[in-house]
Each structure stands twice: as structure tokens, then as C-alpha cells.
Fold these 2 entries.
Entry 1:
Amino acid sequence: MSGRLFRLFRLHTVPRRVQALTAVVLLAIFVLFTVTGVALLDARAALRAIGHDEGPMVVATNDVYLALSDMDAQVTNVLLTGAEDEWLCDVDMDGGPSCARSLPRYFYDIRREDAQRAALQAARLAEDDPVRLRTVQSVLDGLHLYDQRVQAAMERGRAADHAFGRLPEDAAAEYRAATKIMTEDLLPKANNLTLAGAADVEASYGDPLSRMKSGRIWVLVLGLTVLVALAGLQVYLAKRFRRVISLFLVAAALGTTALTAAAASLLATEADYVQMAKEDGFDPVLRLSRTRATGKSLNADRIRALLDPADADRYDQTYFEKSQAMLYIREARDLESYYAMLDARVARYGGDPHPVSFGGYYGVEATEAAGRGQQAPVDTLLTRYRAYQQNDRRVRELARAGKLEDAARTHVDPRWHFLSHPAFRQHDAVLDARVVRHQLVVDRMVRDGEGALAPWAWLLPASALVIGALVVGGVWPRLVEYR
């Protein structure tokens, strides 16, 4: 059988055998560099997904949620303080201001533009997904309806000239309708966009990362295969032509060894870059951004019960559920038990190295920080959250005592009523700082990973050609001897 194969491929002559061995070596080199190139493309795809495509789309959709929550908070504070007149301030026909428009109205308009811009960015990044495009369009349409209801609530409130913290019934009805649009339509849709995008990031990140890791193993195996093939070719030439060594083949072997080691090392480094960008950067950015957006919505829920007493129980339950989403305490059954248990949980985390005794967004953040021995920043964040909840407890106590104006004033900043209480703003500022810090990790890892990959766009094919040329250069003089 082997004799037939030799005759079929004419391997019974020395030149044919040398050519066959050379072809095997060149094929092995081709496969090696093809597999390496595919693995490097997977690394580039994973970095691009996190840093340029799906990752930014998810951040953009979460920015929609954050901007919408901030808009709702501005509306709530204005109706709470009775400052509708400055909100409704318009521009006269001559182009000059007919009154002084309030800062909350400016903030509202800015955040509305932010929400629209983030929604359009999400639409551009999801241009091939008709379902998400329809959702984005629905959010933009719902935003227009929300504006109309807010305008009506402001006009009703101004007409009644109501007291601090006491909204007239007709204004409360319009505010209730606006709140329904925001909480039951806009925010859930924005959240669904974020969740769908996060699932895409997982797929776009996980599959290439898995292929990168297996590709690294294949690179090492194929590199060894090329070296074995080169050694076989060298041994055959040495025995047949009585020459000890071919410098060209030695150079090809050294080049293969160097490139295999460099490629395997690069793939390991790229896997680290990708994992750090995802796990130490993108995941915390998304988690903390959602926490921040939930906190803004939570802050508005706290005071809705004063503005709309008819739905006070629903608003209180929503507040409790969102608090549990941020920092989950399994034993808590209502807000009062939550307040009491929160103090103990936060105090224990600050001074106890034992496992974290709470869940939710903050539970994940605290567990990861404890694992890295970086509890201090999270302890500061939890302390701010506890202070915010303590202020909420005070607001509710005053409201239950019938001191509605005092409750409303406790909710806002003592000096600037258009701002939320300092405890909330401090908590929000710490969250924002941590989001920025983790986003820098994403940006740095993606930049470094792509920078390390850049030279390989030309280095890999050039190396394949050089090593192939060295192999041919090593056997060519032997083949010429038979001419």
C-alpha cells in the first residue's frame, strides 16, 4: 500500500520526497499562522465589543434611564416647592426673557436633551435590530407625552398658588398621569434596552474570549508541530545529502519558536485585557450606573406620597422595592425594618472582614471590593447611602405626624429648595465618581489591548512569508543538485 502511494505521488525519487516534506512544513506554517490570525481577530472583536460597539450602546441606554430619572426628579422638586411660575417662564416675541426661568427648568431641558441624544446613540448602535429601534422610537414618543402632562401639572399648580409640599388635586391628577408615563412606560423600556444590550455584551465578549483561550493552546500545539516538521526535514536532508545542518532551516525554526512564543504570550495578555475591561470595568460601570439611576428614581418616589396622597401606599412600596434592589436585606419586610437592619449591615461591613451580609447592587460591589482588599471606598459609599436613608426616615416620620411642609422641606436642600437634600447629592456624587473610575479601566484596557494588537496586522503575514522563504531557501540548493 505504501509503495502504491509512493508511486502515485512519485515519492520514490529524492527530489519528490524533499518537495513533499517541504510542502508538509509549509502547510503546517500556513495553518499555524492562520489559527494565530483568527485568535487575534477574536481578541480584537472582544475589545471592540466592550469598548466601541455593544458596550457603549448599553451605557447609552442606561444614560437614557439616568436622564429620565433626573428629569422626573426636577419635576417633583418644583411641584413640591411651588415654584411652577419660574418653570413656566416663557420667552417673549422680541426674543428677550419675560421672566427668570428657574434652574430646575434648565436642568430638565438639559437632561431631556441628554435622554434624546443617548436614545439616538443607542439607535445608531442598534441599527440592525428593528425591535430595539422601535423601543427607542417609543421612548422618544413617550417623552413628548410626558412633557405635555408635566406642562399641565405645572399650569394647574401655578393657578392654585399652593403651599410648600401641598399640591392641589387637579395638579396632582396631572402629575399622577405624568408619573405613570414615566414609571410604567419610559423607565421600563429604557431598562429593557439596557438588559438586552448587556446580554449582547455577554455573547460578544464570552464567545471570542473562549476562542482566544483555546486558540492559544492551538498556537502552541501547531508551533510544536511546525518545529517537528522542520526537524524531520532537517534530519532527512542531513542523512541524504551528508550535510550536518542547514542554516536557513535553523533560522526558520528559531523564527517559528519566537513567533509562537510571542503569539501565545500576546493571546494570554489580550485575554487578561479583555477580562479586566469586562469584569473590572464594564460590569461595575453598568451596575453602578443602574444603581445611580435607581437612586434618582428612588429619591423622586420618596416625595411622591406627599404630592399624591391617593397613591401613597404604592409609592412607598415602590420605594422599598428599589431600596432592596440597591442593597438587599433578606429579613426586611417593610421600610421600618429595613432602616433598622441597614444600620447594622453597614456598620458590620465597615469593621468586620467577614462575608458581606447583604445583597443587591451594593452587595456585589462590596463582595468584589472585599475580595480585592479595597473596602474603604465602598464603605464610604455605604455610609452615604445609610445617611440618605436616615434622611428618608425623618421625612416619613414628619409626614406621618401631619407635618407635611416640614417633611417637604426636609426632603430638599435647606438653602436651595430646587436641589435635593445634601445626603442624596453626596451619595450620588460618590456613585458618579466610582462610575468614572471604572470607565477609565475600560478605556485603558481597550486602548492597551488594541495597541498591543496593532503591529500584528503586518507582523503576522510578514513573519509567515519570511519563515516560508527560509524553508524554501534551505531546500532549494539540494533540489538544484538534481537538475
Note: The longest helix spans residues 169-241.
Entry 2:
Amino acid sequence: MMAIELRQVKESEDWQAYHAVRRHVLFELRGLDGYDDNHPDEYEASHIPLLLRKDGVALGTVRLDLSDGASGIVRLVAILPEYQRQGLGRILMSEVERLAVEYGLSRLEAHAAPYAVHFYEKLGWVTVDACQSTPLMLKNLQSSHHGSGSEGD
């Protein structure tokens, strides 16, 4: 039985793992450098850094930014390559959505990498602006008048 949890980054060990996953997936694998562990955005009160662990192994990250009362922004989604294509991104995103609902949000947006647009669409996100280098995706949460027909697609 594998234990999967998405938890808020608070302990220094979690911060180290969080930055290591993101630096590797979003910078090193893309040929970028200049990753900043101490970027002030990480420590904003309205930004919630999250670490996905499976059986204690840190393998994914996401940050939920609370932008206003109703919407949040999903940022910096990363899953280590050796754990990709195993349904963990789907788990990560559904946990972020659940957390967003707990915070009272009614919609999420994300700027997706072009290769990730299909992934988001499979999870019920809609492309709002495809003309940007990172297309803007949107997902409405917990809307009461939209509940029929979406289960089990």
C-alpha cells in the first residue's frame, strides 16, 4: 500500500526537497540556470508551497497562490521524470483543487507549458488564451449549477 500525501512546505527538510525537485524539473532538465531557493515569492503569506510525497519520497511540487477572494493560481507544477506518467500529476492536481476549495476558491488558473495543455484539458481545465508562450488555463471549482454530465468522462 503506497502512501501519497500533498503537504504544505514548512520544515527545512521539506523546503530542501521542494527546491531540489523544482530546480531539477523546471530548470536543469530545460537547460536553464539561475534557480533561486530564496525567491521572495516563495515566502509570501498568500502563497502556499506544496510537496507531493509517495512513501516518504519527495517527487512533486506545486504552489497555490491565493490571488483574490475567489481565484487562485496554480504555479510551478513539477513531477520528477522517473515518476511521470504514473497518475501522480493527476493526484497532485486533484489535491490542489481540494485544497483550493477548502480556502473558499471558486476557480483556478494556471499558465501551462505548451506540452502540458493536453494534461490540464484531460483534468477538466479550459484553455482561455492559447496565444501566449505559456497558455492560460482555467478551471471552475465547486460550481453548483454545473454538476451534471462531467463525472466519469
Note: Residues 124 and 149 are 12 Å apart (CA to CA).
